[in-house]
Request: fold
Amino acid sequence: MRAAKRDYYEALGVERSADGAALKAAYRKLAVKYHPDHNQDNPDAEEAFKEITEAYAVLSDADRRRRYDQLGHAAFAGEDGSGPDFSSFGDILEGLFDGVFGNRATDGLPKDLRYNLEIGFEEAALGADKRIEYERREVCSQCNGSRADPGASHAECNACSGRGEVRFQRGFFANTRPCSQCSGTGVRAEARCTRCKGRGSEARKRVLTVKLPAGVEDGAVRSVSDAGEQTLDGSGALHVHVAVRPHPLFTREGADVLCEVPVSFPQAALGAQIDVPTLEGRVSMRLPPGTQSGKVFRLRGKGLPVFGGYGKGDQFVTVVVEVPQQLNERQRALLAKLADELDSGQHLPAKHGFLDKLKNLFD
Reply:
């Protein structure tokens, strides 16, 4: 018994109200997934491809879609109930597949390029103009993209009639592949441009300056139009991906700058004026008496410019009290005497409070 056909809308995974663009997008996605060239050892994929192709061929045509919405699959059933004749759908699907699987025509579309640019922390903070050098393909200066030698009287490949591809039948669907006689150039070997070897383009080095605004973040992308690969149809874009090198003192959170500053125990206990590094140079910061390790101080306006906005962030300074190491005998004796005096009074409230809680917990 023949299995019942699925609803065409269900096969493509779209609503019945889907417009032409939605139908095309759904079909393109499924066609790439199930195309026989990508699933040569999977007969189920070929059947799925046939199903979605049939569904798209019907629903993409206004008249066929109207008939299907009225009568369902019966609108196209032959005497044996087998469904539509695929030979009538070739023109409908040909243009779509050119964009899905690529051919010589789409190979000529402008292509974007990527450039990875590493900059310093200060450059990201203050902004910079970076000169970059890269290579891109441009229309051949000798043949102007025709791929053929300007002096050739007859350059067209006889095997593919200059298309650069030949058609072949794979099961129920006609497909294309690059012409083996001309290697997909569409030009006879002896008539190819001597400069670009029939490619229609040549590699050239280009230099340009990319302006990075103050406050640019790690991972940001700056796009330069018309700086990508060039074809007869125009030029793509150059996408500059920014990577910011780590700084030995600073880290970043948005427009704010974070840093840690080590201080001695006497400085933290007695208070002091300490030097703090900022992006604008050293500044003096007051450390009040009794400052605890981990205390965070804010320096307003000492951060980075707000990217795409106004004003600047702040700098947050974390004080880290450093414990002295490798003490001599005299230093040990002095610290031991100081420890006894501190423990005897109320100079260490956090410590005494902890001991009281600990005592109450186990008593």
Residues 8-101 form a domain with the Helix Hairpins fold (CATH 1.10.287.110). Confidence is low (pLDDT under 50) at residues 98-107. The chain has four domains: 8-101, 113-244, 251-322, 329-362.
